[in-house]
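thread: overnight batch results

M.L. [08:02]
morning all. the overnight job finished for the chain we discussed friday. pasting input first so we're all looking at the same thing
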Amino acid sequence: MGKPFTFIFRITSLCDKACEACCNGQQNATHISMQQFIKKLDDIQRFVESEELIPIIGLTGGEPFLYVDSSHSANIGSLVNQIHQHIPLAEIVMRTAGWAPHPILDDRLISLFKSIPKKQLNISFGFNLFQKQGVGAKTRFNHMLKLLLAYQDRVILDVIYNRLNLEKTMDLIEEELADFNFRYRGIRAHILSQPSTPHRFTSRHRENQQQIIMDAYPAYNACQQSNQAHFFDENISCGVCHEINTGPTQLFYREDLSLYHCNDPFIDSRVSPLKKERFLSVADEFNYMRCQFSRLRKLFSDQQLVFNHKQARCAFCTQFMMGEMANVNNAIPQ
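M.L. [08:03]
and the structure it wrote out:
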């Protein structure tokens, strides 16, 4: 097998958190069709075999553990088992915003760990005080770490904050990591000294080999749907990103299997994704993206493009990659 390649599915838009910083907005609940999902998995398996790629299947939302199909006969466990059945070598990665103790959701998560080999399943935990306006945050944090650490040697913790809740967020995380007997020295001081910069820390358990990898970063409201005053400014000039330099490294499918070029929250959601009917196969999707990325890299190189901030660059790239840029020259920053 060769290089890894990621196929990300937004399986549901349904979420119970109502985050102020949500990049998806509050939408009517839509869910991926189980029948169409299975067909796509078979196509992916043919593609990765022909290209000798290492398949990674990502499931996101909304809240993926709230997924149900239209017949209400399938949930997240059904999707994951289909992935393992149709693409046996795939690594399955998921990101959940978690929940307080809940017998049904707890059982869904535990069942996944019991049915999928340990090395092929990785569930990360996204935590912030925007979720439910911070109500029940400590209980949810404690419960999810306890669940995930029972089955994983390493847990990835995604944390975001704004100017108002930064201190409170750090207080809660310090307290809870200490209760779980994890070392956290220096995290608070480092983040407070550079709050507008993303940070990564590895916290190690004091007695066993378990790790918590914490990605902490400031909240930027990409959709500008809420009060911007308390969010951090993302006004750092930028050129090419990793995905532009190396892409395509992923295909990102929405619930109806329409396609975006990446899953960065700053992609311009006002631009429609590519409809699935446009392509005959996953190979066709990949070849389209490869051609578009090649053209985009050449454009950045020839024009020496630099944008004032990431949001402007991602809006430009989304329009270009989705084929909605009628006149490239008019859209290039001056």
